[in-house]
From TrEMBL:
<feature type="transmembrane region" description="Helical">
    <location>
        <begin position="122"/>
        <end position="141"/>
    </location>
</feature>
<feature type="transmembrane region" description="Helical">
    <location>
        <begin position="66"/>
        <end position="85"/>
    </location>
</feature>
<keyword id="KW-0472">Membrane</keyword>
<feature type="transmembrane region" description="Helical">
    <location>
        <begin position="179"/>
        <end position="198"/>
    </location>
</feature>
<protein>
    <submittedName>
        <fullName>Drug/metabolite exporter family protein</fullName>
    </submittedName>
</protein>
<dbReference type="InterPro" id="IPR000620">
    <property type="entry name" value="EamA_dom"/>
</dbReference>
<dbReference type="Pfam" id="PF00892">
    <property type="entry name" value="EamA"/>
</dbReference>
<feature type="domain" description="EamA">
    <location>
        <begin position="4"/>
        <end position="138"/>
    </location>
</feature>
<feature type="domain" description="EamA">
    <location>
        <begin position="150"/>
        <end position="282"/>
    </location>
</feature>
<keyword id="KW-1133">Transmembrane helix</keyword>
<feature type="transmembrane region" description="Helical">
    <location>
        <begin position="147"/>
        <end position="167"/>
    </location>
</feature>
<feature type="transmembrane region" description="Helical">
    <location>
        <begin position="91"/>
        <end position="110"/>
    </location>
</feature>
<dbReference type="InterPro" id="IPR037185">
    <property type="entry name" value="EmrE-like"/>
</dbReference>
<keyword id="KW-0812">Transmembrane</keyword>
<feature type="transmembrane region" description="Helical">
    <location>
        <begin position="33"/>
        <end position="54"/>
    </location>
</feature>
<feature type="transmembrane region" description="Helical">
    <location>
        <begin position="210"/>
        <end position="229"/>
    </location>
</feature>
<feature type="transmembrane region" description="Helical">
    <location>
        <begin position="267"/>
        <end position="286"/>
    </location>
</feature>
């Protein structure tokens, strides 16, 4: 069972890493940020609710108060898409995903604020390693990139919204069916996206199959496969292992940007990527190892 959990979480995270390919392609064809987000969320909405209906799942199984909380939590997915895709309008996909990955340390802030749990020393070490990795991975250390300020801001905001999704989704109606829960979350996302981009609705070419192909592609790899695979695999393994496995989306996104989008990634940038991945391992396993060493010295 553990092996199945590892495979599902790994594939779910890797799937999200292919999102930039579809988003960048959409921008190259001239579609707007609003058009891409609306079509993506609508496709995910139809797919997940269709799956819920086929499974015979019913909303009344969930309390009304939880329905609102799930939808509100799902709105953070919509925000992540808006900020993350918006960052890719101004930055290379490889840089946008690195900024998204700041959720590693932003999650510490959320825990500190909402659970009153201050970060431990190992978490601060992880933060330093993460930020060092960001400097290298962004290309700022060698002055090789002129990064757009709005792109940087949107990229960081995507990290804040993604960290919010991870933090709150683990606390809301966790006993409900994962497909129904995902359907309600994407409903919250769709409502938010429509409200923000309501002026873009009349501009959507409804019969443009190319736009729908791109939207469905983004929906599958970004809003359907990851939550479903995580919901099926995460309960079978530890939370720490799930977080570490989820980091695979970073190298997948960068490698796909290199091979398919022809983006250049230098040796120093790769070194930064590996530092960010190392920070995730430190954050998840470092404290446990340090406590083990302390117990050994005491005994």
């Amino acid at each position: 069972m553990k092996g199945k959990g590892v495979i599902l979480v790994f594939l779910g995270a890797a799937s999200f890493g292919f999102t930039p390919i579809f988003v960048k392609t959409g921008f190259q064809y001239g579609y707007s940020l609003g058009q891409i987000n609306i079509v993506q969320m609508l496709a995910a909405f139809l797919f997940l609710w269709g799956l819920s209906i086929l499974k015979g799942l019913r909303i009344r199984e969930i309390r009304t108060s939880d329905l609102i909380k799930i939808a509100a939590t799902g709105s953070t997915v919509g925000l992540t898409g808006i900020f993350y895709y918006g960052a890719m309008q101004h930055l290379p996909a490889s840089i946008a995903i690195i900024l998204l990955f700041q959720f590693v340390w932003i999650g510490m802030l959320y825990e500190w604020i909402f659970t009153k749990t201050p970060p431990e020393r190992i978490h601060l070490i992880s933060l330093v390693v993460t930020l060092t990795g960001v400097v290298l991975a962004s290309g700022l250390s060698d002055g090789g990139l002129d990064l757009h300020p709005l792109g940087l801001l949107l990229g960081l905001l995507s990290g804040f919204s993604y960290a919010g999704f991870i933090f709150f989704s683990g606390q809301v109606a966790v006993d409900s069916h994962p497909i129904l829960r995902s359907s309600l979350m994407v409903t919250g996302s769709l409502v938010l996206v429509v409200l923000i981009f309501i002026r873009d609705i009349p501009t959507i070419p409804v019969l443009d199959m190319r736009l729908w192909t791109i939207g469905v592609g983004i929906a599958l790899v970004g809003a359907v496969i990851p939550p479903l695979f995580f919901a099926g695999g995460a309960p079978l393994i530890s939370g720490r292992l799930a977080n570490v496995l989820s980091s695979v989306e970073l190298p997948v996104a960068i490698i796909s940007a290199m091979l398919i989008l022809s983006e250049k990634v230098t040796f120093l940038q790769w070194a930064g990527v590996f530092l960010i991945l190392a920070a995730i391992f430190i954050n998840e396993f470092g404290g446990k190892l340090m406590n083990r060493e302390q117990r050994r010295h005491v005994s």
